[in-house]
Amino acid sequence: MQIAIGSYDGLVAGYQLTRTAESANGDATNCFKFTQKFNDNSHLGCVKSLAVSPKGILASGSTDETIHLFNLEREISIGTLVSHEGDITCLKFVGKDFLYSGSADGTIRMWRTRIWELQRTFKGHKGAVLHFDVHPSKKLALSVGADKKLIAWDLVAGKYSFIRNMKKVCEAVVFNKSGTRYAIRSGSTVDVYDLTATEAIYTEDIKCHINDTAFLNDDVFVVAGDSESLILFDAAKKCRLMEFASHKVRVRAVVPVRTSSPDSFLLFSCSSDETVKAWSLQLTEKTSVCLASINVCCRITSMAVHAPGGSATKLLTAPDAESVPAVVAGKKKKNLTAKKVLPDVTDSTTKRKGILKDPTVKKAKGSKKLE
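Above: the chain sequence. Below: its structure as tokens.
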């Protein structure tokens, strides 16, 4: 599982969260660690937005009006998209085929990921596009702008469906997991709407500026603001679910990752205190445990997480004790119950050729190359 962060000085850095050996007392808090994977200094301005595709392509948008593309698996830069005439404010991958980008130039642009060409430009805002989100059906998108407008976009037809005038500037809009609700944040408040309703069904004011909002499931959403805490609310029950101290100063971004359990989540948070943290949340028990933390030594502005299907569950699941060799005095004991798997005799020649061609495998003395 990989985490990318953007900074004020144009740096994009990547980290990997891994699980180490289980502690003797079964405590999981010391069993995880962050490892830095890469640094990329391609941008000339503040990195305002990050997004990761299902294939592991990282897109970063900056005040330098460019979008940089980075392959997380190969850890190399693969190109730059240049079309906007303003700061890149929001990025969103939709499936494997499209990347959407919002900008201070008032437009949202659609890029085809296979050939990285501009396919369509959505125009409707008279001011900067501050944020947008795409419905899970991939046919609808909502955007908010500095012009105090909420615009619904028909992504199939390539035009807007309706424009709603808001009472104040809205900073972000996010859908829940099924697309039945969406939340709009503005200043210190979050308003939750049913998809077909025009009035908010739930409003919450946390008394400080909100920097990020994300849904964990269809009802529960997390709010990160200028306070030191992360707060979870339940839109269905219209109540505050839980709150816990997370960082020393304001929290800049949060990214939840689902597991196989509907009440268990892996949550990543980053802060102006220059730290990134991983949390294990249990909604039923209302508990939060910090699994790992790292100081990135830069002023963080944005964050994205690449979590392939099942990776969160696999990461949080303790390894089977029977499958881990016992260690005594720094030496591994032989696992007497383990069986050695022999290659199939029908394709042994093919397998041996593959092994000898592998540069990481050393050739044994006296062995001959297969022809």
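The chain has one domain: 2-323.
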